[in-house]
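[Meeting: bench + compute handoff]

Bench side (C.D.) handed over the final construct sequence. Compute side (W.E.) agreed to return the predicted structure before the next meeting so the bench team could plan truncations. Sequence as handed over:
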Amino acid sequence: MKFFRYLFIGTIFGITLAKAEVISWFRIYEMFKFQSFHMYGVIGSAVVLGIIVIQIIKRNKLKSIDGDRIIIAPKQFSWARYLIGGSIFGLGWALTGACPGPMFILLGNGVGVILVVIASAVLGTYVYGKIRHKLPH
């Protein structure tokens, strides 16, 4: 029962993304071919909303649901890290037609083949965890 609220919010989020066609392979394909503003509008509004929420959290020193203060650590900037990581993420997104969140929404919508992508993402995360100490950060 403790995690019901997260399941509820995740379900509402999944329905919203499905209805907004964010999980549509065709919409993603249009985006990568620069034929439609739809996905850029969704991503851009998410970025703007994220910036606003982060500033509200920092300026008001907000606390989490558990009562702990939310501390957002500063990130070290590195061109190579963002170019390589972003390229790998973008290629995976272009090849599969889904980024991590929508993968689970596609599974919930009955696209069973996405299990291969989810398994590959979990395996990739595991491998990264094992070799992380050897990579430049």
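W.E. noted at the follow-up: The two ends are 39 Å apart (CA to CA). C.D. will use this when planning the next construct.
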